[in-house]
From TrEMBL:
Sequence ranges assigned to domain NAD-dependent epimerase/dehydratase in this UniProt record: 3-228
Name of the featured protein: NAD-dependent dehydratase
GO MF: NAD+ binding; UDP-glucuronate decarboxylase activity
Subcellular location, record wording: Cytoplasm
InterPro entries the record matches: Epimerase_deHydtase (IPR001509), NAD(P)-bd_dom_sf (IPR036291), UXS-like (IPR044516)
Organism for this UniProt entry: Roseibacillus persicicus
Taxonomic path: Bacteria, Pseudomonadati, Verrucomicrobiota, Verrucomicrobiia, Verrucomicrobiales
Keywords, alphabetical: Cytoplasm, Decarboxylase, Lyase, NAD
Amino acid sequence: MRVLVTGGAGFLGSHLIDRLLEQGDDVICLDNYFTGRKANVAHHLGNPNFELMRHDVIEPFKAEVDRIYNLACPASPPHYQYNAIKTIKTSVMGAINCLGLAKRTQARVFQASTSEVYGDPELHPQPESYWGNVNPIGIRSCYDEGKRCAETLFMDYHRQNGVDIRIVRIFNTYGPRMNAEDGRVVSNFIVQALKGEDITIYGDGTQTRSFCYVDDLIRGFMGLMESDYALPMNIGNPGEFTMLELAEEVLKQVGGSSKLVFQDLPQDDPKQRQPDITIAKRELSWEPQVPLAEGLEKTISYFRQDLGL
Ligand code: NAD
Ligand code: UDP
């Protein structure tokens, strides 16, 4: 297979590329390096099956491929809010450009959507049939609504032009190669604990998230891509934790003297989030295998090495 991965130099994209090359695919990695870095894929430079392209998905691109994974988009709130207009353009124009390419080449195209399409959910856990509770004009909207619009475009290209689509709704995922600076909770807590700095809890820390280890997620991606399922599918780990519980587990594993400090809860921060993975189980026989404590251990050891701590 010839596979294009947009956002391939990012956290998830680089793990996906590792697995695709391992199974013998030819991979083109397309990235503008906004939040990704060449170091994440540098170990493949020189591999004749790997090509690295600096490009922005809001501009059209051409390639003869069989599969397209569209992952390009900043994923952490501080990064996607840094230039909100650019974030919407990336989701919407990026989707249109990938779908146009898929239409021409008859490639199968996969969209990295998000649990954020459910907003601050009133239904718990969230099944794919839930339409969500999203503020269309808040500071998270550039990301949430951009991803919702991308899903709409995927479904319309599918219905109108017969494009072969896959849509995954990703729930909070963590692991090695997360960007230490990107502001997401797992990397923040680990880096703070390793540096002996205060652990920043936003709000009272009782809000919940369900954290999936990256290897589990990528196995789900590849299973979905090669399945026949053309509707949105949740992939995530149903294990649900409060931010206080997460901080406690990180501190237990890292040790050290960090204290918890409480800061303002960002606007529209969802109070709870947990995937209903009935469809992934049924369609892909997929289930996460890595529990939080084990995944955190691997992630902590990555950050120790990466930051020299
Ligand atoms: P990331 O920030 O590490 O990776 C995103 C990649 O896209 C980066 O390499 C970045 O440089 C690139 N990029 C951003 N804008 C671009 C543009 N305009 N043109 C080309 N490249 C661009 O984040 P990630 O965690 O690897 O997320 C990958 C995808 O998965 C994103 O679409 C994100 O929305 C989605 N997602 C991730 C999570 C998660 O928990 N990690 C959860 C839900 C959805
Ligand atoms: N959070 C926190 N401290 C931090 C970073 C994040 O308490 O240093 C909280 C944040 O308010 C949210 C949760 O952790 O409730 C997950 O945040 P993240 O940005 O990782 O993901 P998202 O909110 O997009 O699910």
